[in-house]
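Suppose you are handed only these lines of text.
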Amino acid sequence: MLLPKARGELSEALYDALRSETGEVGSLHLQPTDGDDAQIALWAMYELHYAGFEDAGDEMEWHPDVLRLRRRLERDFEAELRARHTATTLDEPFAESLFSFIADHDGPSLAAYVQRKADREQVLELLRHRSIYHLKESDPIAWVVPRLPTAPKAALMELQFDEYGDGDPNRLHAHLFALGLEAAGLRPDLYAYIDDVPVEILELNNAMSLFGLHRRLRAAALGHLAAFEATSSLPSRRMAQGLARLELPPEMIAYYEEHVEADAVHEQLAVRTICGSLVAEEPQLVDDVVFGAFTCLDLEDRYAQRMLDEWAAA
Ligand SMILES: [Fe+2]
Ligand SMILES: [Fe+2]
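From them, the structure of the protein bound to fe (ii) ion can be written out as follows.
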């Protein structure tokens, strides 16, 4: 996999630095051209911690200048995410209150659109966009495991064991998605479609890496996970129905069907056992759990709204 296309001056300068054989890093103090430029630069720097790029040296993952730039962009991004969130206090009991916070959030639904109205081209576009996350599904939350106390750590591993296929590589969720892409005539290789995704998809992915890679934000990572799992089962059923309506291949439908059942269990685990046991031990982390949950829902809304607007205008 090669570095994606630059989206402005800053990502251009960053890629030059990442490609430099000598580890010579020029000036990375530029301001991003726009949101796309900032988000693709951040995404590329995060990716150095996952699969990396063939045209970027492995050493660059921990290059101080790259880390300095990453920190600068992360500060702006986190400030933006926090500014969108209005602090909410959760009542007791915690789990019911977090469930209702998530359920009360009202946003546009891409799954409902796919279920009833979307055409084949629109669904394929969606799958290409979703491939950026689903091909590394659950990896960003894996960073959090060593940062947790005993009870939430055990519960998170129970959930992750499932996401990673219960010991069977053919059941790994990321692999199921790859099989679905291939059957649908799309490219199953990692980030094949990164140059086509809108900034909202980069933000969705970057928020998960931001929360996952900072111990300070571990509660936001788990809150994000809780909202993600708690808004997955019913939408996955709608997606499966929409895909069946459009006669997409069974492999792709199977990915979504798998999530109807799995995420009905995962939402209970994520909200009650993972987040619940974390805040029982560290009650001061409640606000960050809510911040993470809100961010998941809000970034999904932004992506859904963008796609629905684009399709309506087409
Ligand atoms: Fe999954
Ligand atoms: Fe799940």
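What can we learn from it? The radius of gyration is 19 Å. The mean pLDDT is 96.
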